[in-house]
Amino acid sequence: MIAYIKGNLEVKANNYVVIDVGGVGYKIFMSASAIEKIGETGKQVKVHTYYYVREDNISLYGFNTLEELKMFELLLSVSGIGAKSAITMLSEISPSNFALAVISNDVKALTKISGVGPKSAQRIILELKDKLKTEQAITSEQTPEIKVAIENNGKVEEAISALQVLGYNKKEIEKAFMQIKCDDLSVEELIKQGLKILGM
Predict the structure, then answer these.
(1) Which residues of the chain have pLDDT under 70?
(2) For 18, which DSSP code?
(3) What is residue 64's predicted lDDT score, i.e. its pLDDT?
(4) Residues 133 and 97 in one domain
(5) Which of 38, 64, 93, 99 has the highest CB neighbour number within 10 Å of its CB?
(6) pLDDT for the residue numbered 101
(7) Number of other residues whose CB lies within 10 A of the CB of residue 102
(8) Among residues 62, 83, 76, which one has the least CA distance to residue 16?
(9) How far apart are CA 157 and CA 172, in angstroms?
(10) Domain range for 199
């Protein structure tokens, strides 16, 4: 709808900015960290935008980078997360750290974000992990940490498949693996650890 807005930055408030484009002021909601980085009032700025439409609300959300926009769109696709929660999360975690936390099942990192409890963190991981892997994560350049996390995740997927063959339910297996530090384990060790937890 509206891909970006380029104009003079007129207002910097707590959770929004106003950008003047040809005499029209656009009110754009942004994360606190994005507002900090956007620049000085009176200067020309460019903001990537998301046109948010609900029955009782039409708003523009703005981002300094395409990575932030991508993360926002992914967060909106998670059940139970609305635009305000997503924008708050963007204030507290960078897109690359978010991608890393999701791909490596790091519930702890996600629960450090205000408003995200263990259940929400697990739901974010379950709903976004596959999307992040297929979209090569949300950063324009994958960090080495994200590449390692994706490789480790390949081992986890193999172990999950093996445990499914043994008759366990995929969601039960994924919950079990959230309790295991998967980084240095082989597929066989992952299966053994998974069986220990599932057999409890």
Answers:
(1) 133-153, 182-183, 200
(2) E
(3) 93
(4) yes
(5) 99
(6) 86
(7) 28
(8) 62
(9) 14
(10) 143-200
* Coil, strand or helix at 82: coil
CB atoms within 10 A of CB 119: 11
Beta-strand runs (E) in 64-165: none
Residues in the chain: 200
The DSSP string of 26-81 is EEEE--HHHHHHS--TTSEEEEEEEEEEETTEEEEEEESSHHHHHHHHHHHTSTT-
Q: For residue 197, what are the CA distances in angstroms to 94, 169, 173, 186?
A: 32, 13, 9, 17
| Nearest Cα residue to 106 out of 196, 190, 182, 186 | 182
Q: From CA 51, how far away is CA 41, in angstroms rounded?
A: 23
pLDDT score, position 11: 96
Say if CB 162 and CB 187 are below 8 A apart: yes
Residue carrying structure tokens 């999360």? 89
